[in-house]
Amino acid sequence: MKYVELDSGNKMPMVGFGTFTLTGDVCRESVEKAIELGYTHIDTAEIYENEKEVGQGIKTGLEKTSLTREDLFVTSKVWKDNLHYDEVIEACEGTLDDLGLDYLDLYLIHWPNSDIPMEGTFKALAKLKKDGKIKDIGVSNFTTTHLKKAQKVSSEPISINQVEYHPYLNQNKLLNYCKENGIAVTAFSPLGNAELLTEKPLVELAKKVDKSLAQVILKWLVDKDIIVIPRSTSTEHMKENLDLFSWDLPEEVFNGIEQLDKKRRVRDPEFGEFDMEE
After folding, report:
1. Annotated catalytic residue within 3, 39, 48, 177
2. How many domains does one find in the chain?
């Protein structure tokens, strides 16, 4: 496993386990299995309504391994409607209660909301960090415009920007801005909600490598220094998604994927503020 060191000194695994859309026993069992297989980075969110199940999966997963809480990196997110100061504090405390944890390694603003001033939001995040409830703060779905505003008002470094990133949404301009400003990037929907796995141009490129197409896409991302959080309920796929660091992606395949950008989003809700993108 490779890691990204964040502002706190905390090391974030470059491959994590995503839990978007996982619920109930499937969620609990998948998180448990992920930890048993070697995942130490778990990603969830308030709006997923699965934090209790994620917490149960973490608990049983730790019990079945020699790992401790300190070995895990757990991320959650505060929803865009709960960004006033008191709401952020309350949301984080609720998340910790549901997860059964004393702290989060990373807490993100899930989506920007221009109707709520950022100053109060980041003041609350700084308070949570000072109180030991969170180790690092970050954002999600922020454009460079949002990031510039956030950097002006946040007293704490912004460690992460979690955004949709895959071969058909290759956000190099945003990635370069983040790198220049010490902000690591996490890719959600790295496989385009699995839609990319049947795309002919990608299938043809993957034939040049003795790996699955999913592995090739994830490898392309980590080679760009992007953290990935694929979601799967298949033990075989979970194992494959972890196996990204023992082999090299040929330059021609990497460059071929770089040329496939279509600016196609699989997550483009009406409340998204992508029109503010520079």
Report:
1. 48
2. 1
